[in-house]
Design brief:
single chain, alpha/beta, 2 domains, binds S-adenosylmethionine, 13 helices, Rossmann fold, globular
Length: about 400
């Protein structure tokens, strides 16, 4: 097993000392499921929320075939593919969306616990609705990311729940006897005159984040762009609240909203449908702006993430700013909101160009950065996508 873990990489997600591709919780899930995996037949195993392939490839290396896998982040899915190719295990699994097909008839589910209870509820309900009645769910995580509320959520959909001893600051919950299954339904709310939809785990749920609110309050009256060739871009769109707001506030505008998270993209798509603007807002799952051509955009908005899987990292935002610089045309603008403590202004200046503060409150800063002419061509270093698969999937 250690050979598999040693060979795993996070690429194309951020890599740095201390950011690992597989950890003690993955090892515990694999160890606790070893007997069940040995007894499982082809197609019996589903893996949900694997970070970079440790669970899937650990099971495949031990002989499992026909594994169905769902990873929310496109970077995680691409890392799984890259790791599997290197290890010669690519034909033992397939990636599928978070729907009935993922778990239909499954007898064993290996689950890396999501941090969001709403995401866990969606996953547990889905398994209970479609897996084999004999299914066993081996769900694990790091203690610092677990709470007893997770046990309660699992008990809503499983009659039996056993809890492992902790090992290396990790623990496993083992759920059996599925009941009260249901397919995920997005939370719904009306926010600032917009309908917002959020599946479990989407950033801020069906609410307006206070940083996002400061950005919306300060966007310009008539930005350049918004045409089919030069749509307004809502980068890292989450539930799509900024994209929906732009499509509503700027009449007739075309918008492109993208996020690497499958749950975010499903939520954004539901948000656009609920507002009747799905014909003007294309929603794509992509790593940053991987599918957008260089020097093609006039107006991009961004409320950047600072988590890569469960790890908080300051490497993500600079990577995103570099990709924004690649995609903005000279003179194009990035409107960005950030936690003031992060001091992004010098990074924005360096990566994109002159950066002006537009608003600031106790916690957040909104800036506009104008793409300077003559930046180096970053198309080879940014984009972040797997070179074999650079197109975004438009849903
Ligand atoms: C702070 S949230 C902002 C969401 C939304 N724009 C809002 O303001 O409510 C950051 C978003 O970045 C997304 N994200 C993280 N890494 C990404 C990447 N490499 N490419 C695209 N989106 C990413 C996350 O999934 C998350 O939805």
């Amino acid at each position: 097993m250690s050979t598999i873990f040693d060979a795993l990489r996070r690429w194309p997600d951020v890599e740095a000392p201390g950011l690992v591709a597989g950890d003690a919780a993955d090892r515990l899930i694999l160890d606790e499921s070893a007997g069940l995996r040995a007894a499982a037949g082809p197609g019996d195993i589903a893996v949900i929320n694997d970070a970079y392939g440790a669970l899937t490839l650990g099971a495949a290396h031990a002989g499992a075939h026909g594994i169905r896998v769902h990873i929310d982040a496109i970077t995680g899915e691409r890392a799984l593919d890259a790791n599997a190719s290197r290890l010669g295990l690519a034909d033992q699994f397939r990636s599928v969306p978070l729907d009935a097909e993922l778990v239909r008839g499954a007898r064993l589910v290996l689950l890396r616990l999501p941090r969001s209870l709403d995401a866990l509820r969606d996953i547990a309900g889905l398994i209970a609705a479609h897996a084999d009645p004999s299914v066993v769910v081996v769900a694990g995580g790091r203690l610092k990311h677990m709470s007893v509320s997770m046990n309660e959520v699992l008990r809503e959909h499983f009659g039996q729940l056993d809890v492992s001893h902790a090992r290396q600051k990790s623990r496993v919950l083992i759920a059996r006897s599925p009941r009260d299954g249901r397919d995920p339904v997005p939370a719904a709310a009306r926010v600032e005159g917009l309908e917002v939809r959020a599946y479990g785990g989407a950033f801020a749920g069906a609410r307006l984040d206070i940083g996002t609110r400061l950005l919306l309050d300060n966007l310009p009256d008539a930005p350049v762009g918004g045409t089919p060739d030069d749509p307004f871009i809502d980068l890292a769109c989450g539930t799509g609240i900024i994209g929906a707001w732009m499509a509503s506030r700027y009449p007739g505008a075309q918008v492109y909203a993208c996020d690497q998270s499958d749950v975010a993209v499903a939520s954004a798509q539901a948000t656009m449908l609920a507002n009747g603007i799905e014909d003007r807002v294309a929603v794509a799952r992509d790593d940053m702006l991987g599918a957008r051509p260089p020097a093609s955009a006039s107006f991009i908005t961004l409320n950047p993430p600072f988590h890569s899987a469960a790890a908080v990292t300051d490497l993500l935002a600079p990577r995103m700013f570099a990709d924004v610089a690649r995609v903005l045309r000279p003179g194009g603008q990035l409107w960005c909101v950030w936690n003031s403590g992060l001091k992004y202004r010098p990074l924005l200046e360096r990566a994109i160009g002159p950066t002006r503060q537009v608003a600031r409150n106790a916690k957040f800063t909104v800036t506009v950065s104008t793409r300077r002419r003559g930046l180096p061509d970053r198309s080879l270093v940014a984009g972040g996508g797997n070179p074999r698969d650079s197109a975004a999937s438009i849903r």
